[in-house]
């Protein structure tokens, strides 16, 4: 038996201390801060996961006094925290927080911010690490980065650190992502930059790596010899939730495929990294992403399709179609559904189709990866007894009902040899009793610790955009082909089946 050996490459990071930190949230009155960041900070405080000295500074365009913003933050936590807030912990988190109002392109805001941060250092008696979290609309990212540089806030004081966390969307297409990378890297070193994809902070997404690399069972079949095809689904039941301003310019491909879904694909198909460490993991993801050959414009219609939800019913309620939503153009061509067929040109995966689909207002919310193996080469049973034989299928459900299920063929009890499929199930919430933290909790701690393993590197983000750029271009150029409509609450457009190879069907949602 081989002993489990220590991996010095992987040691250290998880044990990195969370140094005393000042976290500066730009866009602190926005939706993301309200729904995710402030509740995540509360839960970290509640679990004692914040550093022993932690200072929160909020920057936003609206004018509020410190106390007014504290009241807003309190309400966010009360509404969106995954645990019922303990008033003493919440008071402790918010009591000292500062609010700096102002426009993001106003130099004086950064003067005020610099002074506030210096005061916090003086109070501590040593330099705090500074983490600047950009939770604003994307058009402000380059402005804020430039201003931080001008004010010298990108510099790392001895014993401290200066880091920037950048939300999605990082760029709008390949060219703009490259441009943004260049602007960011002019001010910050790559080691200071943390590009967020909140899917990477999800427990079940990390479990994908545990599953692949902590079990010997799967590696031998994890290749073109055994895998027939893979389906990755990110279906949502919600609509655009009042975000027409953003969504009209984005669409499903930019909103979910370019980032979350391609990240899932990369983690599923990359070669085993030598260590669970930022650059080793990202090197492997980059390699596999670069092996996905982007389509030429003419072949886009054969490998990608888009659709929009029309009116329909969801949970017994009539809902409007996308083109009737407030803020959406009645002739909008923005897709609320996208499906792709991708291929990975390397030894491991050549010839295996990878199907991806995502959509708003589908029958239910489910994010899953289904790996279907090839059929057995020969059936030794009678024809009648074999009727129920189906290929093995491994389904990793990322949300909700997180777990893993493996379809096997089993004998039906009785005097005859008849086979039918059965499922072997692992369910997260029965195997582990503790509640999983929210993705943002993990990612905020990692950024404070300086561990970029679960963040996207500059070359990786460009590889991700490179895959979908031709599809975006082809869809933009096509201004006449009608966009298929699917009823809200349905399985999605039947036209999506045209991407599948013979014998394949989309899994039922
Ligand atoms: C966000 C998208 O990145 O992910 C949203 O902008 C989408 O449109 C959301 O609803 C889905 O995230 P989750 O964690 O609910 O699967």
> What does the oligomeric state look like here?
single chain
Decide which structural class fits the backbone.
alpha/beta
Low-confidence stretches: none
Topology pattern, helix = H, strand = E: EHEHHEHEHEHEHEHHHEEEEEEEEEHHHE
Summarize the amount of helix as a percent range. 25-40%
**How far from one another are the termini?**
43 Å
Assess the beta-strand content as a share of residues: 15-25%
Ions, cofactors and other ligands present here are: 6-O-phosphono-beta-D-glucopyranose
Mean pLDDT: 94
Output the strand order for the largest sheet.
Answer: 16-15-14-13-7-12-11-8-17
Please count the beta strands (DSSP E, at least 2 residues each): 17
Q: What is the count of helical runs?
A: 13
Largest sheet properties: 9 strands, mixed
Shape: globular
Helix/strand layout:
Blueprint: E1 21-26, H1 31-46, E2 54-60, H2 66-80, H3 87-94, E3 98-101, H4 107-124, E4 129-134, H5 141-150, E5 162-166, H6 174-187, E6 193-195, H7 203-213, E7 227-235, H8 244-269, H9 278-290, H10 300-303, E8 304-310, E9 312-314, E10 317-319, E11 337-342, E12 354-359, E13 366-373, E14 393-399, E15 403-411, E16 419-427, H11 428-431, H12 439-449, H13 458-477, E17 485-487
Parallel strand pairs: 1-2, 1-4, 2-3, 4-5, 5-6, 7-12, 8-17
Antiparallel strand pairs: 7-13, 8-11, 9-10, 11-12, 13-14, 14-15, 15-16
This protein binds 6-O-phosphono-beta-D-glucopyranose.
6-O-phosphono-beta-D-glucopyranose is lined by residues 236, 255, 367.
